[in-house]
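name: query_chain
kind: protein
chains: 1
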Amino acid sequence: MHFFYFRELWLDEKLILENLTNLNYQQIFGPLKNCQAFPRIYLIAIKFLSSEFNFNLLSLRFIPLVCMLLSLLIWVKVYKDRFSLSWNFFLVLFSFISSYRLIYYSAELKQYSMDVLVIAIFCFYLSYQQKLEYQKPSINFVILTMLLPFLIFLSHTVIFVLWIPIYNFLFIIRKNKDILSLFIIYTVLSLAFFGFLYLFDLRFSLANKCLFQYWNDYFLCIDSPYCFLNSFGEGLRRIVVWFFGDTAFFMKAGSLFIPFFVFALFESIVNFFKEVKLKINSIDSLGLIIFLELLIFGIAKKYPFTGERITLFFAPMVFAMIVKGIGLLNKYKPIYIF
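structure:
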């Protein structure tokens, strides 16, 4: 319904459209106009499709819609593996499909739905990667492993997770030497593709002063302990509640979920050291690592910690952590039932 509403392009979408119409395919691999940042291959795919339809609204937003629908299918699988077919599974699934922000950005000429998709693919991949300790990789797994680094050209958020399969391979190699060649191939492709990304994309985005000025208030303040705690608290609030709705009511009502998110976050830290033995192989450990990365990048002023839509890819993990936090209270029946 949202996709077929034919909502007019808003400011950022209009600026992206100007890049699509005014830049040829070769120029897209240079600096974008109007202070925009957009993965270049993804932008070219949108240009290739929409130009065939004279940049019609639906053609401009079609690929983002497909990305969000595909991501939902993958997240359903991830949620099912994590929660089984329990009420927890349905609660986290309904949180996803009723999220105002996920619905809204599934029909917008921006990269955010693609961000949700690529993180879903990595999360799905990591859950199966751990099985290589005791078995040879299948042909499908080998193909997926070699294609995974290519996703960095479709979404900048891949930078958060591209290194994680390499990290896990180091654990697996000690028990299964057969995956050594696969480890080398993935590592080489990742480094090579990251080099290309920097050459044709990141070096222009990182030098985009007006873009960083816009996000300046969304980084973490380190001028003083009070300033840090204040910006961290606001960032944490937005990370947990921003995805539910777009009004003050939703922001206030969603604040009730912050303790559950924090509770699950601390439990994930304990499990990371005690149960999974430093491996990143589930939505729990991946959510913890990405949260810490957002914290580090936010302090370094390289990626907004309180980024709202630019952290949309984290929403599916936020929902899982909230439901996990509620489930951890099962031994306190009155609170749990409430």
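note: The mean pLDDT is 92.
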